[in-house]
Write a structure and sequence with these properties.
The complex is a heterodimer of chains A (317) and B (499). Chain A is α/β, with parallel strands linked by helices and 317 residues long. Chain A has eleven helices and ten strands. The longest helix of chain A has 23 residues. Chain B has a two-stranded antiparallel sheet with strand order 1-2. Classes of the chains: A alpha/beta (317), B mainly alpha (499).
């Protein structure tokens, strides 16, 4: 009897809370888990977006950014995948990194572990060469790589990241071979380029915007020119089909209730038209390109297939 | 550019901005003095909060903490032989013997004056020479950086004195610890036993606290009834004005230590601990009385402390101009800058001169404030600790260690690791294995490995790539000198004795 009463009370309480959630999500602070330390690119994106999302969700909404750095973001994203899908735990999501980690390591999540809310940043790849290399056009670079396979050294931030995939695409498209030099992060790679220790680099446009005078920037891997460097031609303009970049967005655990998902999606989609948000992102050198819901999921799937294809032919560890 | 420097000055004196530096220095001294809490951690905890602050308030706090902590680490190093931060390891060599002789107060005054001078020299280097010095950083590609790390390791093994074989074994242990975690190139797991917590390698603070703080605590608790040789009545603190004349012979050591600190600061990665060792070694090598070093030579404290503060501001030179931080602390500060939309690079100085140059002034004032805030008041308050009964003091330190290590990532795993290193440290201490090479082995080992492998990739497997330019060759020559120098000198001296 007591047990039954207990059960009834529990069910009643669940119905009540569910009803409350339906009525006025969010009723307590929403936690956004960032898999990197405070002050990094992903963290800055999350903290810049947070007050805007709060505003779109309604007066009482509050977002708490929580850093869980470690294992190239894997610790944080695993936490999100395993969290309750109640809309109170969200997380940041990096592409292609988060998908690559499911291929090159044992991961406790996969592409179906998430509800895809919105990708917010798309930082396209650029190819740069050191001024001392003499390779100041794309044609010269490709000619050199064709004539002397492996002679061109390429500095980049890591294997299995967006820079690496961009290089694989370049190699496949031009039937060339380069020598990969994976630094720990893009700043050391860029410094090695400035010092002439490597000939070429694959970086992201936000990382070279400040250094355009000291490096040869050969092109950008986008469909249309980037507002960050309007004078910089795309690779497609130069006859090379190369579109690639590093993406950062927000996900929730899979199985989010539909109404909460709709509310969140609505909030995130407002980001792209908010000039104040766009200005704040421009100030931190984050090129914004908002892609929501199904499209974001498709994007993730495509990148997973790309990463898997690369892994099968040229595994990076 | 120098006009920008002066234009930025008035804003630094806005009271909120100046108060931030003062609070930062005080907080830094406290954090540095607690074993297990480091400037890196304090600043990374601070970064998320700075979102809502004015840039110069946030940066002033950081500059203050950095300067304060580099000195604060000396306090437990002198009083308890427990370095509060990795950079204070060399301070224990002479600081602790001084305290045992009842000169602890003077040792701390030497430390605070030296720290302030090092910080001031470094701030001037940052203010006046940042662009030319950043070009020096560019000379150091992977092969050069590899040789810097090898040189650092060779110095610590062969110049520290004592038994070089034991030093080598200690350093190898440190290098082994640096290998744990994911492979720097391919990302494969190494010695992690499937633990996600170990993928990023072993944090230096965990090793430092375990190795250095646990053995002294065990000693404290082993003989709970023995009254301590050091207590504040015997600390021999005197007014800083009386202490200053006793430091008048340190000029050369300060100058040399500042140069070494600034130099190491602009090279990526090595940081304050290597600077302090180098400065200490050089000062001892050129001393007229090298035999008194290690037994309470005040100049040894001066050499170590001037250098570990001289790398603070200079570590920001590559951070601000190239985005590559010279030390772990500079790395988290870079995050603090990014939060305010300050992107490192050549444009930074042009786009935000008020903030960048204001930040540099804050470094300078932070260093000057050290003398006032870190002087007798701070020293005396910490020295009171030593009046505590030994079991109580030991327990307090253990609690601080546990809190400090737990708070790095907020997980118990690190605490168990630290206790494991503590057990190893205790055994090593009993067997008279030197501990400093372990610390430097961990710091420089990973660095040497990563850069060696990058260099070999650039050379497509040809080891000659390591000897291809002048900078590398100079570093190779220095390394050889460090290894064979002491033996040759000994032969030479012995030869003369016979003759």
């Amino acid at each position: 009897m007591l047990k039954l009463m207990h059960k009834t009370a529990l069910v009643g309480a669940m119905i009540l809370t569910a009803g409350a959630a339906l009525a006025e999500y969010p009723e307590r602070p929403i936690e956004v888990i960032v898999g990197y330390s405070a002050g990094g690119g992903t963290d800055v994106m999350a903290r810049t977006a947070a007050p805007f999302i709060e505003r779109y969700l309604g007066e009482d909404a509050s977002i708490v950014v929580k850093n869980m750095p470690g294992a190239s973001g894997q610790i944080g994203v695993t936490e999100v995948a395993n969290a309750d899908p109640d809309g109170y735990t969200l997380g940041t999501f990096n592409l292609p990194g988060m998908m690559a980690r499911t291929i090159d390591r044992e991961a406790d999540y996969d592409r179906d572990s998430f509800t895809y809310l919105a990708n917010v940043v798309n930082d396209p790849n650029v190819i740069v060469t050191s001024t001392g290399s003499g390779l100041d056009t794309l044609d010269k670079l490709i000619a050199e790589a064709t004539e002397n396979p492996f002679a061109v050294t390429v500095g980049m931030s890591s294997l299995g990241g967006d820079d690496h995939f961009a290089l694989i695409k370049l190699q496949n498209a031009t039937e060339t071979e380069f020598t990969i030099v994976p630094f720990k992060g893009s700043a050391p790679a860029r410094t090695a380029l400035l010092g002439g220790h490597v000939a070429m680099g694959i970086l992201n446009i936000s990382e070279v915007a400040e250094f355009q005078d000291q490096l040869n920037v050969l092109g950008v891997a986008t469909q249309e020119r980037s507002p960050f460097a309007p004078d910089l031609p795309t690779f497609q303009e130069q006859g090379l089909d190369l579109v690639n970049g590093s993406m950062r967005g927000f996900v929730a655990p899979a199985g989010l209730p539909e109404d909460i998902q709709a509310k969140l999606m609505d909030a995130f989609s407002q980001l792209s038209s908010d000039q104040e948000f766009l200005d704040a992102m421009a100030a931190t050198a984050n090129p914004v390109e908002v892609v929501t819901g199904e499209e974001f999921k498709q994007l993730t799937s495509d990148l997973y297939d790309l990463a898997e294809g690369v892994w099968e032919t040229t595994p990076w560890n | 550019m120098y006009a920008d420097l002066l234009n930025a000055l008035p804003n630094v004196f806005a009271w909120t901005n100046f108060a931030a530096v003062i609070i930062g220095v005080i907080a830094g001294i406290v954090v540095g003095a607690m074993p297990g809490l480091s400037a890196t951690m304090a600043i990374s905890v601070l970064v998320p909060f700075t979102f809502g602050l004015e840039p110069l308030v946030a940066l002033g706090l950081m500059a203050g903490i950095y300067n304060g902590a580099m000195y604060g680490g000396a306090i437990p190093a002198v009083l308890l032989r427990i370095p509060g931060t990795p950079a204070a390891v060399a301070t224990t060599f002479d600081g602790y013997p001084m305290a045992q002789k009842g000169e602890g107060g003077f040792a701390l005054q030497v430390a605070v004056v030296s720290s302030a001078l090092g910080g001031i020299a470094s701030a001037f280097a940052l203010m006046l020479l940042a662009p030319p010095l950043s070009r020096v950083t560019l000379l150091f590609g992977p092969s050069e950086v590899f040789w810097v790390a090898v040189f650092g390791l060779a110095s610590i093994i062969f110049l520290l004195g004592g038994n070089p074989i034991k030093g080598l074994i200690s350093a190898c242990f440190g290098v082994f610890v640096s290998v744990i975690g994911s492979d720097p190139i391919y990302g494969n797991d190494r010695f992690t036993f499937g633990q996600l917590e170990m993928l990023d390698g072993i944090n230096i603070v965990i090793l430092l606290v375990g190795l250095y703080a646990l053995p002294p605590v065990i000693d404290l608790l082993e003989t709970p009834l023995k009254t301590d040789g050091v207590n504040s009545s015997k600390l021999g603190t005197e007014s800083i004005w009386k202490a200053l004349p006793r430091m008048k012979g340190f000029g050369m050591t300060w100058l040399r230590g500042s140069f070494i600190g600034i130099w190491i600061g602009i090279l990526p990665g090595a940081g304050g601990s290597m600077a302090a060792f180098m400065s200490y070694n050089e000062a001892r090598r050129t001393s007229k009385t090298p035999e008194t070093w290690g037994e309470g030579e005040p100049e040894g404290v001066a050499a170590a402390e001037v250098a570990n503060n001289a790398d603070t501001a200079s570590a920001l030179i590559p951070a601000l101009t190239l985005g590559i931080p010279g030390t772990a602390v500079a790395a988290v500060m870079l995050g603090g800058l990014l939060v305010h939309g300050l992107q490192p690079g050549p444009m930074l100085f042009r786009d935000n001169p008020d903030i960048v140059f204001g930040f540099m002034w804050q470094f300078l004032f932070g260093a000057i404030l050290l003398v006032l805030l870190g002087g007798s008041l701070a020293t005396n308050s910490f020295a009171r600790l030593l009046n505590l009964p030994r079991p109580l003091l030991g327990s307090v330190i253990i609690v601080l260690m546990l809190i400090g290590v737990y708070s790095i990532h907020g997980r118990m795993f690190d605490v168990y690791l630290m206790l494991g290193f503590g057990a190893i440290g205790w055994v090593m201490d009993r067997l008279k294995f030197p501990l400093p090479p372990v610390v430097l082995g961990l710091i420089l080992g990973g660095f040497a490995e990563e850069n060696l492998r990058l260099a070999l990739r650039i050379g497509r497997g040809d080891p000659m790539v390591l000897f291809q330019n002048t900078t590398s060759l100079i570093l190779v020559a220095l390394t050889i000198a460090v290894i064979v120098g002491p033996t040759l000198k000994k032969r030479f001296v012995d030869g003369r004795k016979k003759a």
